[in-house]
Automatic annotation (TrEMBL):
<dbReference type="GO" id="GO:0043190">
    <property type="term" value="C:ATP-binding cassette (ABC) transporter complex"/>
</dbReference>
<protein>
    <submittedName>
        <fullName>Energy-coupling factor transport system permease protein</fullName>
    </submittedName>
</protein>
<dbReference type="Pfam" id="PF02361">
    <property type="entry name" value="CbiQ"/>
</dbReference>
<feature type="transmembrane region" description="Helical">
    <location>
        <begin position="108"/>
        <end position="127"/>
    </location>
</feature>
<dbReference type="InterPro" id="IPR003339">
    <property type="entry name" value="ABC/ECF_trnsptr_transmembrane"/>
</dbReference>
<dbReference type="InterPro" id="IPR052770">
    <property type="entry name" value="Cobalt_transport_CbiQ"/>
</dbReference>
<keyword id="KW-0472">Membrane</keyword>
<dbReference type="GO" id="GO:0006824">
    <property type="term" value="P:cobalt ion transport"/>
</dbReference>
<keyword id="KW-1133">Transmembrane helix</keyword>
<feature type="transmembrane region" description="Helical">
    <location>
        <begin position="18"/>
        <end position="35"/>
    </location>
</feature>
<feature type="transmembrane region" description="Helical">
    <location>
        <begin position="233"/>
        <end position="250"/>
    </location>
</feature>
<keyword id="KW-0812">Transmembrane</keyword>
<feature type="transmembrane region" description="Helical">
    <location>
        <begin position="64"/>
        <end position="83"/>
    </location>
</feature>
<feature type="transmembrane region" description="Helical">
    <location>
        <begin position="41"/>
        <end position="57"/>
    </location>
</feature>
Amino acid sequence: MLEHYQQKDRFLQRVNPSLKLGAVLVIIIMMVPVFDPWTPLLLFGVTVALITGLGGVHLRFLGLLLLPFLLFAFSFVWIQVVFPDERGGTILFTIGSLPVSLENVSTGVSLGMRALVFGSWSLLFVLTTEPSRFMLSLIQQCKLPPRFGYGMMAAFRFLPLFRDELRQIRTAHRIRGLGEKRGLRQLKRYFIPLMAGAIRKAERTAVAMESKGFDGSRNRTFYHRIHWNRHDAYFTGLFLLLLTTIWFVSTPWSA
């Protein structure tokens, strides 16, 4: 499904995954002390433009993914309205006997927009990064031990297998006439065989990795190398320009 709404080999897909992860962490740290609603609103708009323009993700698909974050952001506004931090201020309107002030709405919108910024930058990283390239980048650029990096890659590949095994277990139970009863007993029927299969896969994977030299040594060769390229330089310049713009926009509101 993701491939249908995403264009491959766009600018953000070519950027080093470790660099994109660092950018996400910097954005999160920078947005923590920002309390005005306009700075995160500007950053959210720029992020959506980056994902759709430079990431090749369709706007409609991105909107569907952002819908839970929008509901989460609205919850901040609603909490500030129902449980205000301060009384008085500029009253906009009333809900029954509850006055809604401009200051509380502004605080709720600021918190909600920050949540949208965090969610949009997380989607920017997830939608434009291949898991295998991300792990290889952590191993090669961030010096993550190979046994941890390749172990996480193997665990990620197991997830579709667990889904298929669960489907097979449910089919086998129906064939044997066990039915689809809900409750703790039914959960136990699924949990025990899935856990046994996971343990077997983990043991086989550990033996295979040890036999192939994945013992934590960093002096090893790689079939697929992740190199720094000109797209990383362009992304760094664009990101620094974005940070400068955020600083100039947020400075008057924080004064």
